[in-house]
Write a structure and sequence with these properties.
The chain is α/β, with parallel strands linked by helices and about 475 residues long. Helices cover about 30% and strands about 25% of the residues. The two termini are about 40 Å apart. The structure holds manganese (II) ion (2 copies). One manganese (II) ion binds next to α7.
Length: about 475
């Protein structure tokens, strides 16, 4: 057999993914780079779920979306959104087909691993002032020390007035950090296992060092901080109890690599799917099936709570939509298709031992379809059906979307989950599809620009079916 014939057989009979950097037309690579400029701006604008909702609503309203009013009839082409407590968002464009025939749904999450302030966070030790924190989501705690941090969030005073806080993002702002032990004195610390090198209770944010001048008494550094906070925000120490203050890395998104082919940033998981799921919806004013993007909160801590995907707010929305469309919520859901838009771990050649290459996603090979997540013997996953996998393959190929597949690492190496199972539990055909990420859950995560763009193309394909 000739070399050419072998190559032809390999291509027709084998499953090979392609590196988009090699195979895509130059215009498409440029389109990816251009698209990612918008994504980087979104990343810098939306480091918390509240900021992501705010940024998404601004973009949606610019595109003609208006708040959904239960009981008010909807018609094809209507663009509506439902803001759930400023922390989760459902956006929909009503399709030509009756809602009873189902919808196209993309669900991404907009919360990311970070450090939350404790309810009573402010304290002084050895004349230094600190915020005590409680980490949110799965983190390697040692990664969060000795790096500049910003403070984001809201404080709601007893009378209900809300104060928004964002310190550390402007170049003229101060930043904060969690200090680490110098190597010279770290001999005992370095003998601990990595999960214990920095302990949960060591994640204390340094926020001040100068005592209130010309005053006698104890804890004057803390008092000084309280005074500054009171002057700037009108808050007192008890107001921390009714606050959601989050510590996130203080740096912005940057091009990564001499070839600028990647983006390094905080919070790609899962804004790297949330942004494409949003832009794909905004760009499709006349879908055949009703197109819906859900931006969910609380994924990183199990999707519990009234803004997470285990909440009834999504099925309630479908019931309200059904009530004005002459159908039922369960009818819409049962005939809908969903892409659970979440990231997967990209193959990292520095740590090949936790992955099987043929079943891992790689940079520049497009969006990753993850048939199932979970741990051990597929515990805790919805595992998409063969029929639905075939439909998604067809959809992506018809729309020339570069795609690949991946498991979350080697069997028994660990595991994880996404919101896919909560949507699937509502009797919706659902599969995970998202962008490969390196250094997932670290303060600085990395993605490939081609893959981000292909996520946008994939959600566009779903919404234009
Ligand atoms: Mn995620
Ligand atoms: Mn995650």
């Amino acid at each position: 057999m000739s070399d050419n014939k072998v190559k032809e057989l390999q291509e027709t009979l084998g499953f090979c993914t392609k590196n988009g950097g090699k195979t895509l037309k130059i215009e498409e690579i440029h389109a990816a780079d251009t698209y990612c400029e918008g994504y980087k701006a979104f990343l810098d604008d939306a480091k918390t779920e509240r900021e992501a909702v705010k940024a998404a609503v601004v973009l949606a309203e610019k595109n003609g979306f208006i708040p959904f009013v239960p009981g008010k009839k909807v018609a094809p082409g209507d663009k509506i959104y439902l803001n759930n407590r400023d922390k989760a968002l459902i956006l929909a464009v009503i399709g030509e087909k009756p809602l009873a025939e189902g919808a196209s749904i993309a669900v991404a999450h907009i919360d990311s691993p970070r450090l939350d302030l404790k309810p009573n966070p402010l304290y002084e030790d050895s004349e230094l002032a600190y915020f005590d924190t409680h980490y949110y989501g799965g983190i390697k705690k040692y990664q969060w020390t000795a790096t500049p941090m910003a403070l984001h969030g809201v404080v709601v005073k007893k009378d209900g007035t809300k104060v928004e806080v964002k310190i550390g993002e402007d170049n003229t702002d101060p930043v904060f950090c969690i200090t680490d032990l110098l190597p010279h004195l770290g001999q005992e610390q370095m003998k601990r296992t990595a999960s214990d090198v920095v302990k949960g209770e060591d994640l204390n944010l340094l926020i001040g060092s100068r005592p209130l001048p010309d005053t006698d008494g104890d804890n004057l550094t803390k008092l000084h901080i309280l005074q500054l906070l009171n002057e700037k925000y009108g808050i007192t120490e008890a107001d921390f109890l009714s606050a959601e203050l989050q510590i996130v890395p203080a740096f912005g998104a940057r091009d990564l690599g001499l070839d600028r082919s990647m983006i390094g940033a905080y919070g790609h998981d899962d804004r790297v799917c949330a942004y494409p799921a949003l832009t794909a919806l905004l760009e499709n004013p006349h879908p055949t099936y009703t197109a819906i993007t859900v931006l969910a909160d609380k994924e990183e801590i199990g999707s519990d709570g009234n803004t997470g995907m285990q909440s009834a707010f999504l099925p309630y929305f479908f019931e309200d939509l059904a009530a004005v469309s002459g159908t039922t919520g369960r009818q819409i859901l049962s005939r809908s298709l969903c892409l659970s838009a979440d990231v997967n771990a990209a193959f990292d050649p520095i740590y090949p031992e936790v992955m099987v290459k043929a079943n891992s996603c790689q940079f520049n090979r497009g969006v990753c379809i993850t048939k199932y997540t979970g741990a051990r013997g597929k515990s805790g996953t919805s595992d998409a059906s063969a029929e639905y996998m075939a439909l998604i393959r067809r959809l992506l190929d018809q729309n020339e979307v570069l795609w690949q597949i991946g498991e979350l690492g080697r069997v028994d190496a660990g595991g994880g989950g996404t919101v896919a199972k909560y949507i699937a539990n509502l009797n919706v055909d659902t599969v995970d599809l998202g962008v490969p990420v390196l250094s997932m859950h670290a303060p600085f995560e990395v993605v490939s620009k081609i893959d981000v763009y292909m996520a946008h193309r994939a959600f566009s394909a779903l919404f234009s079916r």
